[in-house]
Amino acid sequence: MLGVSTVREALDQAEQILKSSDAIDHPHAGKERVDAEELLSFVIGDGWGPRDELTSEEVRRFRTLVRKRAGGVPPAYITGRTEFHGLILDVRKGAFIPRQSSEFMAEQAIRRLRRRVHPVHVDMATGVGPVALAVAHAVRTAQVFGVDISATPVELARRNAARLGLSNATFLRGDLFAPLPVALKGTVDVVTIHPPYVPRREVRTLPREIRAFEPPESLTDFSRDGLGLLSRVVQESTGWLRDGGWLLVEVSPDRARDVATALRRGGFREVRSTKGPVDVSRVIVGRV
């Protein structure tokens, strides 16, 4: 990036560097430009134009971040933040990075909860809390709980809730439903989960920027078919959901049929696979 003087020149060069990297995934055209813009915004702030000049210090910092990204480090781990459903969330290594695809599941939960008088939502494997916080923000009357088995995500989720002023969101550390108040049994309107569903032998086939940086337990439940944790959620959630309550499960399209079958076998009705604007995932829904 020697001789860079403007935003446009810096972005053009960064985009080419990222396109040539073998350490990062290239899921679609334009992703490298988006990553470069995200990193530059972190360095100089938003609201810049194509002819804005950069200082030598800004160029140096930007070059350092681009080098990290080209080495495979996800942008969210570099900047320490990510956007989800209009909310800026803190994230760092040791926690699963929120996916844009999960916004569709959050929207489905929000739509169902708005119909309830005293809505209760539980988000399993909550990570830094994206789905739970999106629900808590959109449905202020909702009582929202996020649960994760790992300490770092729960710490970050609590920090995000406090910074966003969402006192109706509570985050607990524990194994699935175990840390929830017993009084919630039979009162939950919606349970959501984006489970770690990659079969243990397939983790090594994931893009390097995922398998080398994100926590293994956020990618797989270490079962042969990747559905071990999901099977437990299906079985246990029926005791927590109220009559007519919903279970929403986000998975990849190739797992949709197996997950739908698991819900039907677990006694759920009105089971179907739903598709949002991001094609890499499906949300399987069913009600008790």
Q: What this model shows, in words?
A:
- 43% of the residues are buried.
- The chain contains ten helices and nine strands.
- It has two domains: 7-72, no CATH class; 85-287, Vaccinia Virus protein VP39 (Rossmann fold).
- With 288 residues, it is of the alpha/beta class.
- The chain is globular, with a radius of gyration of 20 Å.
- The protein starts with 6 loop residues before the first helix and ends with a strand.
- It has helices spanning 7-19, 31-44, 56-70, 75-79, 102-113, 130-138, 151-164, 208-211, 228-237, 256-265; strands spanning 81-84, 87-90, 120-124, 143-148, 169-173, 188-193, 241-251, 269-274, 282-287.
- Helix 6 links the parallel strand 3 (120-124) and strand 4 (143-148).
- The strands form two sheets. The chain has a seven-stranded mixed β-sheet, with helices on both faces. The chain has a two-stranded antiparallel ribbon with strand order 1-2.
- The longest helix is centred in the N-terminal third of the chain and has 15 residues, at 56-70.
- Helix 1 (7-19) runs parallel beside helix 3 and helix 5 packs parallel to helix 6 (130-138).
Give the SSE map:
Blueprint: H1 7-19, H2 31-44, H3 56-70, H4 75-79, E1 81-84, E2 87-90, H5 102-113, E3 120-124, H6 130-138, E4 143-148, H7 151-164, E5 169-173, E6 188-193, H8 208-211, H9 228-237, E7 241-251, H10 256-265, E8 269-274, E9 282-287
Parallel strand pairs: 3-4, 3-6, 4-5, 6-7
Antiparallel strand pairs: 1-2, 7-9, 8-9
Helix pairs in contact: 1-2, 1-3, 2-3, 5-6
